[in-house]
Queue: 2 jobs
Job 1
Amino acid sequence: MLESLLFPFTEEHEMIRQTARDFAQNEIAPIASEFDESGEFPMETIRKMGELGFMGIEVPEEYGGAGMDTLAYVLALEEICKVDAAHGTIMSVNNSLFCYGILRYGTEEQKQRFVKPVASGKAIGAYALTEPTSGSDASNMRTRAVRRGDRYFLNGRKSWVTSGPVADYVVVFAMTDPEKKHHGITAFLVDAKAPGLIRGKKEPKLGIRASATSELLFENCEVPVENRLGEEGEGFKIAMSVLDAGRIGIAAQALGIAEAAYEASLKYATEREAFGQKIAAFQGISFKLADMKTRIEASRLLTYHAALAKERSKSTGERFTLEASMAKLFSSETAMFVTHAAVQIHGGMGYSRELPIERYFRDAKITEIYEGTSEIQRLVIARLESGLH
Ligand code: CAA
């Protein structure tokens, strides 16, 4: 395969890919549809994924993780999402949006206290940036944090928090100095049991239904000063650089969903007959399959390439924003294209809940929205390329 010629795959990569594939087939596939239907949080399988090291793949072993690289993370996430994107969402937030930021910007004590339980899957992490009136325009937030002595008091409302209903710890972004605009934003690590943190209603969603999403309300929520992540005013930079890592995870998620939809479509089209021949023999279907396959392989190259750029950044310190945004943009639009075609190829069976095809279609849509919409990815790419603001 092209990927093994272009990318430095090791035995360790093959091992984690196989372990994730086996786990997804044996443990997630049998329950995916039931949890999609009920919208229940799959705590048992998430805990087991933690035991296998999937909740902190790049986290060093001393902080409870598997101590592997970004390519290993992407390969494992792709396999999990190929079976169920909801499990993948929970995995991705724990790995990227939660652990990565603390490993990069946190103190030793914060790594011990917050990363260890989340990376080992004993606790769930979340990331609270978006608000009801600021999604894409993330720096325009209203949540305030005021310092009194050795505590901060947070007031405001965060929305669309993945794992919000069940999270044990949350990275929260709040304004400490509104006059400084984005330079006045600060990041905090908040224990979900902190007085003044209230979980809002769970969102009823189109897809990734087993991954719980909710609002979080802060009413004089007390956060000790030692739980500040980075310095005052560094929050926006932290939020953005953490999203760079997160977007590679969403690219891998989209790739996994697209592969599942493609493989099912290829199988169906080479078995199902109409007008006296297999439907894959009709040009209308075969050209669809050709486009699906080509876009998937292009997504794979961009996604693995972004993973290598992030890995390199660990020694060079260089940003991998461009690679991450291109991978997320292309893979998520591919997932939408491929799952849409998969429903069409399957006809009525694609629309039926008896097959997972309609679930792939519903799950794919969020990848074009969360962790930065496709429009925001285009804006980021265009700005970086042109140098214009
Ligand atoms: N890494 C480090 N720093 C970065 C950066 C990055 N990737 N991107 C921007 N910055 C810095 C800039 O260098 C700049 O710093 P200085 O002012 O010190 O020079 C500062 O941040 C402001 O940058 P911009 O002027 O580009 O900021 P902007 O206000 O125009 O916003 C944006 C840029 C790209 C639109 C950004 O707001 C953005 O990405 N928006 C989308 C937010 C998003 O993805 N939200 C999803 C939230 S998570 C979620 O979906 C829920 C979940 O639970 C999964």
Job 2
Amino acid sequence: MLKGRHLIDPMDFSIDEFEEIFNLAEEIISNPEEYMHVCEGKLLATLFYEPSTRTRFSFEAAMLRLGGKVLGFSEPNSSSAAKGESVADTIRTVACYADIAVMRHPKEGAPKVASMYSTIPVINAGDGGHHHPTQTLTDLLTIKSIKKGLGNHTIGLCGDLKFGRTVHSLIKALSRYENNKFILISPQELKIPDYIKKEVLQKNNISFLEVERMEEVIDKLDILYMTRVQRERFFNEEDYIRLKDSYILDEAKLKKAKEDMIVLHPLPRVNEIAYEIDKDSRARYFDQAKYGMYVRMALIAKLLGVK
Ligand code: CP
């Protein structure tokens, strides 16, 4: 039963509950007109303390396409956060006005705190370098739809694996499916955090390999998940500048990949995928962005318990 629940960490929902959401998303993709009014009279609040294009717009589009309405802020200085209001007080207030809330925050754990004080469902839309569970739902629906299943894949995750919250959430989620293998491609300074290695990969005996060069492994991959270097999480600009162009996927590199490998990216991209790649049939990151709206439609409908 998903009605009334919060989504803070990808592991908050079971595999069966993920499946319920994917099934509804697929149903909405096939018959969007049947869902145009299911959220009439409902309000979604978007509380974005950090910039966003895809997550905020796709949540707003999702609610509007379900017949509901949206309110919120995309700039915390336009809210009473600028006067020092706590997340706990903000959500208690928002819960007086809205039926469901989506929160992005630079501090790890802020949406979790909000959920502890909230009488309405709270969805984590990204908390610092921690988690981004609805990007994970997006990624899983994309993989399931294109690769016809969520198990038996070799997944290369490339770029900023230290601060990239989408990577942390995706590894956790994909680790629950059969026979997935991970190849973690990053510079030394941006390796995956130890807690993901120990508590997710090693603890569950999941095969993984850490490498620095994409060229060494690209031919082995079924999925290549590119990420940008997360400038906003660096303590100094010099380190960012030194590392920002560590990986650039271009035509020459993609030539070595399997014909049916897919390239995903949570976006925004900076330099890490050359624009020449966009026309390659393996580049699926804009399809991924579209799946994000449908999966969020399904998630909203499930958490609100609308028929
Ligand atoms: N993928 C993602 O979270 O993009 P935005 O930062 O634009 O929301």
